[in-house]
Each structure stands twice: as C-alpha cells, then as structure tokens.
Input
Amino acid sequence: MDSSNTDINNNNVHEPMLQSNGSEVEPVSSELEEALSDDSLSFFQRIKKATWIELKNLFRLAAPAILVYMLNNLVSMSTQIFCGHLGNLELAAVSLGSTGIQVFAFGLMLGMGSATETLCGQAYGAQKYDMLGVYLQRSAVILTATGIPLMVIYIFSKQILLLLGESSAIASAATIFVFGLIPQIFAYAVNFPIQKFLQAQSIISPSAYISAATLVVHVLLSWVAIFKLGWGLLGASLVLSLSWWIIVAAQFVYILLSERCKKTWTGFSLQAFSGLWDFLKLSTASAVMLCLEIWYYQIIVLIAGLLDNAEIVLDSLSICMTIAGWVFMIAVGFNAAASVRVGNELGAAHPKSCKFSVIVVTSISLALSVILAILVLILRNVLSYAFTGGSTVADSVAELSPFLAFSVILNGVQPVLSGVAVGCGWQAFVAYVNVGCYYLIGIPIGCLLGFKFNLGAKGIWSGMIGGTLIQTIILVYVTLRTDWNKEVEKARNRMDEWGDKTEQLLKE
Output
C-alpha cells in the first residue's frame, strides 16, 4: 500500500485489508475500539467501559504469560538453589556461569526472536494467518544458525572469564556448569519463535501447563542428578538443558495437534529458507534492543567479581539479581501482553485501542511493582536464606535491598514500554536509546562510584539504576507523543511489504 495515498483517521481505519493471497477480508472487530468511539456515552462512561474491557483482555494474556515466565525462571532458579547448597564456591560458579555466559545467549536469542513477535502480532491482527507459520520457521532457522558461534563462546568460557579478571577457582567451576548448557542454546533457538508464534494468537495457557509440568520433572531430575548420583555442576546444567528441550517439544506437539493453530501452521515450507537476509536484519535490530536491556544488569555481577571479597559480593548480588529476575517475570508477562495487544490492534487498524491498552497495561504493572518493592524491603533480612545459610551473605543482601526495591519499581514500567516498542516495531530506535543510557551513562557512572569512590556493589548498582531511570523517562516521553494513526499506517505498509515478498518468492 502506498502510504502517500493512505489517509488514516477515525472514519476510515476500518477499511478492508488484504490477505497475502490477495483476497479481501474485514478487519477483526474490536469491542474496545467500539467502546472508545461510542459517542452515545459520556467520556467517563466510555473510559469505565473501555477499562473493564481492556482489563479482561490484559489479564487473559498477562496472567498465563506471567505464569509461563515465572515457571521457566523457577526451573533455572531451582538449579541455582540446589547448587547453592553444595557450597559457596558452587553457588558463585553457577551465578557467574548463568549470569555471565548463559544470559548472553538468552538475551541474544530472545532479542532475535522478538522480530517474530512484531511480524506475527501484526499479521494476526491483519488476518494474514498463513504468514505466521512462515515467520516462525524463518526465525528458527536464523536462531539455530546463530547458536553455532554461541556454542564456541561456551566452549571457551573459562578463557573469557579469566580474561575478564575472574578468579581461577570460580572460572573453572563455572566452565563445568556452562559446558552442560550447550544443548540449551539450541532449545532457545526453537523455543522463542514458537513462544512468539503462540503469543501472537493469544495462546498462552497451554505453555503455562507445559511449564508447570516441566518444573516438577526438572526438580526431581535435578535432585537425583546432583545429590543421589553425585554429578555436581555438570549434572545440574545437563538436566537444565533437558528441561528446556522438554518445553520445546511439548509446545511443538501442541501446535501440530491444536485446532487453534490450523490456520497459522500449515506445515513445514521451503519459504523458511527464503528472504532470510531481510528477516535477519529485522532480527538483528530486535536483538540489539533486547540484548542491551537483558545484559545490562548482568554486567553488575561481572564487574562485581573484580571487587575485593569477590565471593561474598558475587553471592549476595546473584541472590538479588535472581530475586529481581523472578519479580521481573511479572513485568515480562505484561511486556508480552502489551506486545500482543499493540501488535494485534495495529494490524487490525484500531489506533484508539492501541493507545488505551498502553495506558492500562503500564498502570497495572507499575502498581504491582510498587507492592512487590515494599515486600522486598519488609523481607530484606530473610531473603537470602532460600539460597544459602550463611549469615554474612544475608547481611550483604539486606544492605542491597533498597537498590533491589528501586530496581523492581523501574522494572514495572520499562519492560512494558519495551513490549510496546516490539509491538510497534521500534526496535532500532530503542536500541540507540539503550546504548546511550545504559552503556554511555549507567555503566561508566557505576564503575566510577564502585571503584573510584569505593562504594563497591552499591556504587555499581547506583550507576546502573541511573541509566535505567533515564531510559525509562525517554520511553515514557516517546510513547506519550506517539501518533497511533500513523503507527497503524506503518503496520499496514509493513504487512504489505512482507506480503509482497512472500508472493514474489512463491512465483520464483
């Protein structure tokens, strides 16, 4: 569609759209859009009705998404807890291996997978159902290929950690754990495209059931491998990799058998190997955006490993990061809901619904994060005992709890706005913002406070929080000034562009 000839306004945003095969279809009706446009109601009546509608939509998506992310996080957390009871060295090794190496792969794969989230969400809203399966397969091909150089990083993880200045004992133990995580790389490569494929269709509950069942199996297998068979760190990481592959296999079986995916999954296609360069460019922009976010706080742990008394610092920081990560799963659930709602509504040409959905999801996520931050402060003296019995680590965690609480509040807003960015396709812009706020402001200030002013972990974390705060303010400002009618037009142009490429590939 030629954007110069398209007039997006309240009177014509519902005009028919085209399937990728050229047939004309009516856009998906929106109860929310109708409520917001109902002139027979007063302003407050419209807002009241729209809020109730959007809350139902939001929690129908966010609740199971939160459960999925929390259960998946508990799979990794349970491994850390088991290893923590082996000793402080093992806990530090798992923390460094997970936070310093594993999260690198996780961030890259999740980031690249968010390209699928943008395209699948908008294609589903535009009723171009046949493209969702193609996008899933293209993403899986690209992410699997990306897994090969990541595997090399895992293999040389000890040398990398030593080069970064970590102690030889911790680096050696962490490397043993990381070796067992190599199969997990390729589970990520398939899981994230499948996850985004299902989320775009608002199919999330099955993933929650799968994750819950996998958690039970994982805990049992981890206990047997670590304590009964004595396989230690390597056994713990191998079981973790196996658990992720169980999740992948179960979700794919669901796609094959479910009636809900009949229109969007039509089988394997050679189109998955066509147009990979364009898809890679979009995936790369998505990866840069999300990787810079995910890696940011993990860098705290790597930098903290250079401080004096590194073992205690690493233990306390890793516990705080694990708790923050667990709480972060709630915001990530709202992130997924925001991305799906915005992507679907943009694809369906419902600008008012997009704007209203962003307001509601951000407000709810922020309110919950404030409550959780208060709980962190109340429980600050006992938080660490779920991971280790040491009183020294417990005291260190208690001292860091105010920083943890403030981070929890910021994480109630920032991930949701990132979800909005993914739904709109703003990844490249947000990537530039992240570079400036995180890596040109946050990390340098954190290092200055931590080492030059001898504030240690508190100084490092303070700088990081400053960078996140500036980034959040920028995203709030940009979102508030967004013209959602123009975003609808951009979404239509994007779907037309990718649809035209598919038609061209089919003719070749």
Q: What stands out?
A: Strands lie at 17-18, 24-25. The chain is about 80% helix and 0% strand. The mean pLDDT is 81.
